[in-house]
Write a structure and sequence with these properties.
It contains 6 helices and 4 strands; from the N terminus they run αααβαββαβα. It has helices spanning 18-29, 35-42, 46-58, 91-101, 128-140, 170-173, and strands at 78-86, 107-112, 119-125, 145-152. Helices cover 34% and strands 17% of the residues.
């Protein structure tokens, strides 16, 4: 599984215009739209819309399209936010831990962090016994895990997958004078 950067390249493959931004904003809300429906929503012809979506995928702006499921309907109602500190602080030790942890189905997100804990994990499990079994298998059994601190969500007030997009494309404002 390739590692995804937290901070993508600051030099985009091509400049996004207003149509690109409308397409990306609409797809972030509902990626199941047909090309015809998407074209109508962003006020573009279907061939233009199809070409732009393909270009946005090829340029890496669209990583993948998924369905977001309700964890409560799949016996995964316990959300744990876990801080992990490793005993050995080397690049190899970090890579080894990361390679093992991203293979765990319950781990929804894995972040290397600084300062503070070495890793922050978002884990989705059925209940406390499932967390206990997970923690014993994944953390206690690992020799390089020095400390684990877990917080349990009691209520989720917001869950969002959309990235904030600029309201206007950069190229539209590049020629504007600031005086």
């Amino acid at each position: 599984m390739p590692r995804q950067p937290d901070h993508p390249s600051s030099t985009p493959p091509h400049e996004l215009d207003d149509l690109d931004l409308r397409i990306l904003g609409t797809l972030q809300v509902d990626s199941s739209l047909t090309n015809q429906a998407l074209a109508a929503k962003v006020h573009a012809s279907p061939p233009t819309c199809h070409r732009r979506v393909r270009q946005l995928r090829e340029a890496g702006y669209i990583l993948r399209e998924v369905a977001i499921l309700d964890p409560g309907k799949f016996a995964a109602g316990l959300t744990a936010i876990v801080e992990v500190m490793l005993d050995v602080q080397t690049a190899e030790a970090f890579d080894d831990f990361e390679q093992q942890i991203v293979q765990e189905p319950a781990v929804q997100q894995c972040y290397r962090s600084s300062p503070g804990p070495d890793f922050i994990l978002i884990i989705q499990l059925a209940d406390m016994p499932a967390y206990h079994a997970f923690a014993r298998r994944v953390f206690t059994a690992k020799k390089n895990v020095r400390n684990v601190r877990t917080f349990f969500s009691t209520y989720r007030s917001k869950f969002e997958t959309r990235l904030p997009l600029p309201t206007r494309a950069k190229s539209a404002t590049a020629g504007a004078s600031t005086t």
